[in-house]
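Form 7-S
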Amino acid sequence: MKLVLTEFVTLDGVSQGPGSPTEDTTDGFTRGGWLVPFIDETFVRRTAEWLALADGLLLGRRTYDAFARDWPQITDPDDPFTERMNALPKYVVTRTLTEGSWNPTTVVSSLEDVAELKKATGNELQIHGSARLGDALVKAGLVDLVRLVVAPTVIGAGRRLFEHSDGTAGLKLTKHEATPSGLMLLEYENQGAAPTASYEGVTAFV
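Output:
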């Protein structure tokens, strides 16, 4: 399976609490809900299409606990995500749980376990939220594809994506789309370590 990281971020890279001011108040964060004003039909359709590609969800402990609390409570039959989120196999990366409450759940404890999961037959194993886990897996070279939804807003506080480890990653943009509300939908392939070079003038590039 491909390992795919899906994240919602602000222009200043914050990934914490996109859906509600009370979604994630860790470390006193009070500026959540920044994605909601920009949700439109294109966003809903595209993210539902992404979720349809999943054969499993890979989650960190904090995101798993929040999802396990919230998703089973959504009963709207017209919601395009609920049935699939609740039915998909869940894999939670943690050393503090021995079993999960959001079935079907399997507990894994290491990046080596994640590498083994990727060997299974299937389409995509998707990471949603779980910024610290996603960052570690990108830097370890285990993530094949990064999908970002970038909201046109700067909030100046909160937990940021890709700030938790010392490794680098080079990404190749393969798809891009703007929604009517101004969200940018970006898809990148992981190319390994980030390249660097020295600028030697414009003529070097033409």
